[in-house]
Here is the input.
Amino acid sequence: MPKPAVPYDWPYLRGLYVQGETPISLTDLAQQTGAPLRSLQRHSADEGWVQQRREYQDAVASKARALAVNETARHRVGSLEGIETAIDVLSRQLQAMGEGLAGKDWESEDPNSISKASASIATALDKVARCRELLTGGADSRAQVDLATLLADLRSG
Here is the structure.
């Protein structure tokens, strides 16, 4: 008398093989589930489980790359918004400096105050250059400009 066929949940077994968190061999799948190895091999070949696994893994990898790209884009947008803020602060500071310097009587000014004004302008221009580097992506990767420190520095004067 022939052995009665035991019904196996082939869609479930296919899912374990194709979409399992870690790739599993048909031999290991047979051992773990009790399904006959020959039957697993036949279903795998007939239904294209190997190709389905490749396609599934490619789709997962593609989604992971898309998520990474989106996260990088969100980070860059945040950085650009911060850079725009820094440039606005610098613009206001330079405008205030220019207005203050325009009304000065340079003949009667102390040489130290002229030196300080020149240094302030040079510092502000350096900060504009640093912002431009950030904006254009030209900052040296070994000496990245820290946007939070730059903004705090700008706001403090």
